[in-house]
Structures are given as structure tokens and as C-alpha cells.
Design brief:
The protein is α/β, with parallel strands linked by helices. The strands form three sheets. It has a five-stranded parallel sheet with strand order 2-1-3-4-5, with helices on both faces. It contains ten helices and twelve strands.
Length: about 230
């Protein structure tokens, strides 16, 4: 259910990164590094969700959060370096729908945005929190950070979870090892591409007999999710 997302982040590199991932997922994206401009964009309408950095240079990000909650009550995903429990609770109490701390996986952010938009649209709980593939056999729940295959919950490491959600962002699209390691480890991570192969091997072991069809190898290029996303 792609719509229009407003990205409010003063770090241009990070702002552009989030914008690219959202556009790749089919969203229309407005972006700014100014809280005042964000409030003006909200007032003009046409925004379905806000990705909001609380540490803005011109005003407190909580003012933007308050503006989003006025009128149309636009959903907000807070994106911030403030990682303490108190900061997280404060953001949620002020009306944030979700809270993502830096550094983060851009692909997981996209899934969280999708989950928030489903909830805002009034969909049922299962539709709100999960995305399914292969006729419902594979279920990724970003809100609960869970993966189920044929009703069996898989215990994945953070890296394995990141790889699977990265591939699931665009099923069928081939991701290079470089793309995957940077998506999983965060935009500042200088990691080594070949470590992806080891993590994919471990992930496939947990996926069982259908692993090679779920996470396909494209020789000389990288990996892709072989199972289609359910409509």
C-alpha cells in the first residue's frame, strides 16, 4: 500500500539513503532537513507517514511530531540516535507509532513503515504486522522481529534477520554482497562482502529443505528471494 512519505532528517547522506529505499519500494517521497519546512509540508496535506529525526537543527523534532498528530493525525516513525529506554518511551508517549535507532537497517525501516501504514489503514492485526511470501508459507513480522516458516518460528541472528528482510524488500531482485552487507550492518559499516556467504549458509540451514528456493544464488552477482510476495 505505497503512499507518500515525508523524511525529516538533517543528515543529507542518510536522508538520501532512506529516500532511495522508499522510492525503490514504490513510495512517493518528500524529504527535508528542516523542522519548519516539515511542518509546512504537513500543513499542505498529501503526506501519509513521517519518518522523523528528533535531533533537528532549527527546532525540536517533537514539535514536528505534534504537528503530525494535529488534523489528519499522520503516523510517525521516529528515527534517532537517542537509544535509551526513557527516550523511546517519551517518543511513544508523544504519539510516535514506532521508534528506530541509528545505526539501522534501511530494509527493516521500510518494513516497519509498511506495518505502521497497515495499522493506520485499519487492517487486521495479522495484516498490519506481517508480510507473507510463497502462499503464506513464509511470514516476516517486523513489529515483533519474528520469522515463521510453515508455522514454525525460526530463531535467527540479527544478521540473518537483516539478510532475509533485505531480500524480502523486493522479491526477485538480485542483491550484490556489497549491497547486502551495507543494508544489514548499517550505512556506516565498511564490512567485508564475503562474510555474507557464511551468513547465507547459516540462514539456509535454518530455512530447511526449501532454503535454496527461498534464498536463491545468482552466480557472479549475489542473492535474491525466490518466493514471491503474497498480494
Amino acid at each position: 500500500m505505497p503512499g507518500a512519505v515525508l523524511v525529516v532528517e538533517d543528515d543529507r547522506e542518510l536522508r538520501d539513503l532512506v529516500r532511495r529505499y522508499l522510492q525503490r519500494a514504490g513510495y512517493r517521497v518528500h524529504s527535508t532537513g528542516s523542522g519548519a519546512e516539515a511542518i509546512a509540508l504537513l500543513a499542505s496535506g498529501g503526506v501519509d507517514l513521517v519518518v522523523l529525526d528528533l535531533g533537528l537543527p532549527d527546532l525540536d523534532g517533537r514539535e514536528v511530531l505534534a504537528a503530525a498528530r494535529e488534523g489528519r493525525d499522520v503516523p510517525v516513525v521516529v528515527l534517532t540516535a537517542r537509544s535509551s529506554v526513557d527516550d523511546r518511551i517519551d517518543g511513544l508517549r508523544r504519539g510516535a507509532d514506532d521508534y528506530v535507532t541509528k545505526p539501522f537497517s534501511p530494509t527493516e525501516l521500510v518494513l516497519r513503515i509498511e506495518a505502521v501504514l497497515h495499522r493506520a489503514s485499519g487492517s487486521g492485526a495479522d495484516a498490519a504486522d506481517a508480510v507473507t511470501f510463497g502462499g503464506g508459507r513464509l511470514r516476516l513480522d517486523a513489529a515483533r522481529h519474528e520469522v515463521h516458516l510453515d508455522e514454525l518460528r525460526l530463531e535467527l541472528t540479527p544478521t540473518e534477520w537483516g539478510l532475509l528482510t533485505a531480500l524480502a524488500t523486493t522479491p526477485g531482485r538480485v542483491y550484490s554482497r556489497y549491497e547486502l552487507i551495507n543494508q544489514v550492518r548499517g550505512y556506516e559499516y565498511p564490512g567485508y562482502e564475503r562474510t555474507v556467504d557464511s551468513h547465507v549458509k547459516n540462514l539456509r540451514h535454518k530455512l530447511g529443505r526449501d532454503a535454496a528456493q527461498i534464498v536463491e544464488t545468482v552466480l557472479g552477482v549475489g542473492y535474491r528471494l525466490g518466493w514471491p510476495r503474497d498480494r
